[in-house]
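Hi support team,

I submitted a single chain yesterday and got back a structure, but I'm not sure I'm reading the token output correctly. Could someone confirm the output below corresponds to the sequence I sent? I've pasted both exactly as they appear in my results page.

Thanks,
R.
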Amino acid sequence: MLRLFLRASKAPIDQLYLSGGSSPTAYPSAGDGYLTSDGGKGNFGIKQIAGGIISFSLTLPRDNFDDSAGGATAQFSGLTMNRLNGNAVSTGVNFDSTGDFRGVSLDPTQWHEFWITIKADSTGVGTHLVSVYLDGSTTATNLIVTAGDGDDFTGTPYLAMGGSRTAESFALDVDFFAYKIGAEAPKGKTPQTTTQPPRFTSIIPNTGKVVITWSGGGTLQSETSLSGPWVDVTGANSPASITVAGPTRFYRVKQ
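Hi R., thanks for writing in. Yes, this is the structure output for that exact sequence:
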């Protein structure tokens, strides 16, 4: 399970010094995302020892593979990942590879929380089933993908954050990321129970007695003076019928 809280940055950033460029250029005011490349490497990647890598990138419509040379742009806004391109680890899982595109459409320049689980694909169509739970939802977008063959540490499983292409700029704001072994779905937030403090709802005289009703639980107490000491009224539950005794008596409910 992978949990991310991030956005493509639109904050003021120093000018870009692009690979192969002759002079600095202004950082894009609409943000600068990333395209998964190099055998499935993206902003965040999960690499198995021998099972390939699956990566996730925040992508904006203007993104391309070489900011200096230009070229075809992404024309997509959202969270992108490996393409579906067969049921074996493949190099052809990048944003511009053949196969079926895989992404979740959203505005990547806004803060989003991604809770992502990755399991082996049991259908035989791809290699893995990716489930994306967005912004606290307990309902997933399920996508079958193909793991890539990109590998920076042979024989070692790892979690990577960054970008692999020198020619492609990007900028992210990352609040936190975390992982847990296993494909555990979010359980949602437990509704909070609001406890109301005790309060009197009615006090009714009734032939030498007074009927006191209150809500919120608690223990009824009485005293002849506000300064106390207060004494519990034995066996009194709301509504309580109390015999009038003496000229003055005060009541309160203790929680």
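A quick pointer for reading it: The CA atoms of residues 79 and 206 lie 70 Å apart. Let us know if anything else looks off.

Best,
Support desk
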